[in-house]
Design brief:
α5 packs parallel to α7 and α6 runs antiparallel to α7. This protein has a single domain, classed as Alpha/Beta hydrolase fold, catalytic domain (Rossmann fold). The protein is globular. The protein is α/β, with parallel strands linked by helices. β10 and β11 form a beta hairpin. The protein is built from eleven helices and twelve strands. The strands form two sheets. Strands 1-3-2-4-5-8-9-10-11-12 form a ten-stranded mixed β-sheet, sandwiched between helices. A two-stranded antiparallel ribbon has the order 6-7. The N and C termini lie far apart (73 Å).
Length: 480
């Protein structure tokens, strides 16, 4: 009997070793297919451990000024001559050549503001992604800080060394500055996109715990509340990448850097930080529920695409909205294009989640679905139900699906159709640069020839229903 057990144990060990070797080999092959790293994938700027030398928001802005001076000097020394590269001194893709570099923190000062707003962008993005929202808020009388999160807006290598502690520090200092400007009597809005939305939630959960002021409202787009569990192992790859010849192990994607406001390359270490953030948020929610403090959480509006390939919409419900007071939250989902002739081409993975929300007898949050009026109509409507009701109401909207668009995407939600970088063709007249519209890039030829993936090029970069977001923001402000 013992010999038989030893025999089976030996077989299991051999099989496990074989599987491990196969997985390592497959991963090694995948890494080998990545392009070689370039100078901007290394860290030639210093932006980690900010707490050691930054104690207030003015310090942070001074640090940012020095950082972009270093960036300009570094790009000059690189002497890269690629035409469409943000690290080429003369390229139209180099944002340092623009009248104002919207990769940087942008403050919109308003005389006698009626309130304050702190805006935070997503991972690998920049303040540009919330520039339209910032303009709308400033035009409404709000003092706005459109914050650059450390590691962003400069070079992708910088994102491989900054940590969640650096992210949190910049957010806290910006919010403290906003409080000093606005005072205690006027409302404060925290608006965020993707990772920036998670940072806003994280800060306010901590503020409740320490009994300090929370925001009066959270306006969240495509909030990041769950990422791949593989991100927890990023630290191991970071150590491997320090070995000679294994530099590419530190990257999940290495792409040409033609986008002036977003990194196309993505370091694995950044995934580790957002994984830590999402896990911390879950723990903080549990602590507040245990202490019965969750009722202090701010009024919240969440807007997302139902087929978000970056952040599962189900995680927004399961890990966030179900924890909030029943009268303080609403979820808005942009449905896929339900035209009858597109049905055969649309994957149905999202359908069980959407059906579960639509059919649930009593939702703990208000719910709005933006979808086609009929299967034969590209015009859309807003279908709404209150958290304490099973009744639906439908409101026609002045928007329609473009003929060549079948869904929104994670990266499309915060950008208007007339965005000069990511918008549709008609927006070209509003562009102040010589860049092509990145939202309209299209290429045809033999497969495997183009270095940029077709998935990346075909991903929608603007929101044809952005006017609805502007309308909802105006409505939300009246509730603060």
């Amino acid at each position: 009997m013992k010999s038989l057990m030893k025999k089976w144990l030996k077989r299991l060990v051999t099989m496990a070793a074989g599987v491990a070797i196969a997985l390592i080999g497959a991963y090694g092959y995948q890494i080998k297919q990545l392009p070689d790293t370039r100078p901007w994938h290394s860290t030639f700027l210093d932006e980690s451990h900010l707490a050691s030398h930054i104690s207030n928001f003015d310090d942070y802005l001074s640090h940012e000024n020095r950082l972009f001076e270093q960036l300009g000097d570094g790009i000059t020394k690189l002497n890269n001559q690629e035409t469409w590269n943000r690290f080429s001194p003369t390229s139209p893709a180099n944002p340092l050549n623009y009248p104002y570099n919207l990769n940087r923190t942008h403050i919109w000062p308003v005389h006698n503001p009626i309130g304050g707003a702190l805006l935070t962008h997503g991972l690998s993005d920049s303040p540009y992604s919330l520039n339209a929202l910032a303009y709308q808020l400033a035009s409404s009388g709000y003092y706005v800080i459109n914050l650059r999160i450390p590691g962003h807006g400069t070079a992708p290598g910088n994102l491989s060394t900054t940590t969640l502690e650096d992210f949190r520090l910049s957010y806290r200092l910006a919010m403290e500055h906003l409080h000093s400007i606005i005072g205690d009597e006027k409302p404060i809005l925290a608006a965020g996109y993707s990772n920036g939305a998670a940072l806003a939630v994280d800060y306010n959960l901590s503020a409740i715990s320490r009994q300090s002021r929370v925001a009066d409202g959270l306006f969240l787009m495509s909030p990041a509340f769950q990422v791949s569990g593989a991100a927890r192992f990023a630290g191991y790859f970071k150590h491997l990448a320090a070995l000679p010849g294994l530099e590419k192990v530190a990257w999940s994607s290495i792409q040409p850097e033609y986008d002036p406001y977003k990194y196309n390359s993505f370091p694995i270490a950044a995934g580790e930080q957002i994984y830590r953030l999402t896990e911390d948020i879950t723990a903080k929610f549990q602590a507040l529920k245990t202490n019965q403090q969750i009722k202090q959480f701010p009024r919240t509006l969440v807007i997302q695409s139902v087929v978000d390939a970056t952040i599962p919409p189900k995680s927004v419900v399961d890990r966030f909205l179900t924890h909030l007071p029943r009268d303080k939250a609403e979820l808005v989902l942009f449905d896929v294009n339900r035209l009858q002739q597109l049905e055969v081409f649309i994957a149905q993975k999202h359908r069980p989640f959407l059906q579960s929300i639509k059919q649930q007898a009593s939702l703990p949050f208000d719910f709005t679905l933006i979808s086609n009026r009929t299967p034969n109509d590209r015009q859309v409507e807003a279908r709404h139900r209150k958290h304490n009701s099973n009744d639906w109401s439908a409101t026609p909207l002045p928007y329609r699906w473009p003929e060549d668009v079948y869904s929104l995407s994670h990266v499309a939600v915060p950008f208007a159709a007339n965005d000069p970088i990511y918008g549709e063709v008609d927006a070209q007249s509003t562009s102040s640069t010589d860049l092509p519209l990145l939202g309209q890039l299209s290429a045809r030829g033999e497969r495997g020839t183009f270095v940029v993936s077709m998935d990346q090029l075909q991903r929608l970069r603007y929101n044809p229903f952005y006017g609805y977001i502007e309308m909802r923001l105006d409505q939300f402000l009246t509730q603060l």
